[in-house]
Amino acid sequence: MKASEILDKIKTLKSEKAACKVVDSSNKININSAFGKLGSKYSSLYSPDLMMAVTLTGQLSLLMLIERLEGAGISVVSANTDGTVSLMSKDKYELYDSICFNWELDTNFELEETVYSALYSRDVNNYLAVKTNGETKGKGVFTSGGINKNPSASICVTAVIEFLTNDAPIRETITQCTDIKQFLSVRTVNGGATWRDEYLGKVVRWIYSTDGCEIRYKNANKTGGHNKVAKSDGARPVMTLGEFPKDIDYERYVEESLSMLGDLGLVNF
Questions:
Q1: What's residue 225's pLDDT?
Q2: Is 87 domain-assigned?
């Protein structure tokens, strides 16, 4: 086979792999949506008994797996309703794999495995995992971007990831970034918001500025008397994107990034 044919084959395989990921993600959305409707009395799929059967069966089965792993001296460091994270030396992996395989035979469930080279966890719902190929997976406050979450100063997450994976200084990552979108925070404000008496609308977008101040609810009565929009101290609205601003409060972003590292238990950095 010619070199050009080999390269074409590799490109085709990569395209097929990407397409499979899209299909897999779509199917997961369908399955999870159907499961969610089992608990909705307004759905034709409403079936509380089936919902409980699925939930309890899954959780009890995972507890069985955890018991087997711990009994074999393999530490389970984290677990939630649909997965576990284990920490082990490489010489125990064969034993780990065997336990998981036998569990699959006993339960008729199929496990998916992701190998991490590092896991930094604030709690079960907020963590940053580093895969063996250098890619990272974040959850909760450590999620960077995506259509399911409003941006919230994602440069801080970027800086934390660069620090943990490449030893890049936090301040250097932040001050050298020129992508305004990385510095934006977005929040929906019931009843609308104002900044220095200027009405902004019901969706506000801001950066932290050296000349900023808090964003306020237009009608504090709708929020039980609380007037300030959460985490908007020192904010300046950026409702229209333009040139990269000169008034970015870099210190605020650095402090937020260091706080995130502190939440991970990394205090000596």
A1: 47
A2: yes
